[in-house]
């Protein structure tokens, strides 16, 4: 997050946003082709995979609030259930977002007036929680992963082109 904060205050975010979009798109395409790729080899989770995913997530989250895709790819690679996926993501981002606050204040990026403009969205949070819980317990793991991959591809295309 420190590096991401330094970049957000000093580097062109357009270039970095597009780079992150390409990385996410490549990882999502990998996930789509994973069965074919892994038929030739076996994926073994390593501790450093989580370290890389966490580092990219912290950087991209501090830079452009786009930390979801690296964590999503990492969790999909771990073959967790939809409920574990949702719970891990929610807890991870709750902690990450609170950690970012002092960095944003230090970089003079925290804007209370802008935050007030988005307060109307708070009532929508329970609806999002309900929808995610519904999906986690109604979709099987393969269908859930496919939904996540489609959302990752859409997210990456937005990062690249918009």
Summarize the structure in words.
- It is a single chain.
- With 162 residues, this protein is mainly α.
- The chain has one domain.
- It has 8 helices and no strands.
- Helix 1 packs parallel to helix 3 and helix 3 runs antiparallel to helix 4.
- The radius of gyration is 17 Å and the shape is globular.
Count of DSSP helices? Answer: 8
User: What is the gyration radius calculated from CA atoms?
Assistant: 17 Å
Number of strands: 0
Measured between the Cα atoms of the first and last residue, the distance is: 24 Å
Classify the secondary structure makeup into a structural class: mainly alpha
How helix-rich are the residues, as a percent range?
over 70%
Helix-strand topology string: HHHHHHHH
Mean model confidence by pLDDT: 83
3D shape: globular
Number of domains: 1
Write the layout of secondary structure elements.
Layout: H1 2-10, H2 13-40, H3 47-64, H4 68-77, H5 82-106, H6 112-117, H7 125-138, H8 141-161
């Amino acid at each position: 997050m420190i590096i991401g904060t330094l970049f957000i205050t000093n580097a062109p975010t357009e270039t970095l946003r597009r780079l992150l979009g390409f990385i996410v798109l490549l990882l999502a395409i990998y996930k789509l082709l994973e069965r074919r790729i892994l038929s030739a080899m076996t994926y073994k989770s390593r501790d450093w995979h989580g370290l890389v995913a966490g580092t990219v997530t912290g950087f991209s989250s501090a830079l452009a609030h786009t930390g979801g895709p690296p964590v999503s790819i990492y969790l999909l690679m771990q073959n967790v259930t939809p409920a574990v996926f949702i719970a891990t993501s929610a807890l991870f981002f709750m902690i990450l977002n609170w950690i970012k606050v002092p960095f944003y204040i230090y970089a003079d990026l925290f804007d209370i007036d802008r935050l007030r403009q988005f307060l109307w969205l708070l009532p929508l949070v329970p609806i999002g929680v309900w929808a995610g819980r519904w999906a986690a317990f109604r979709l099987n793991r393969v269908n859930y992963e496919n939904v996540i991959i489609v959302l990752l591809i859409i997210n990456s295309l937005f990062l690249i082109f918009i």
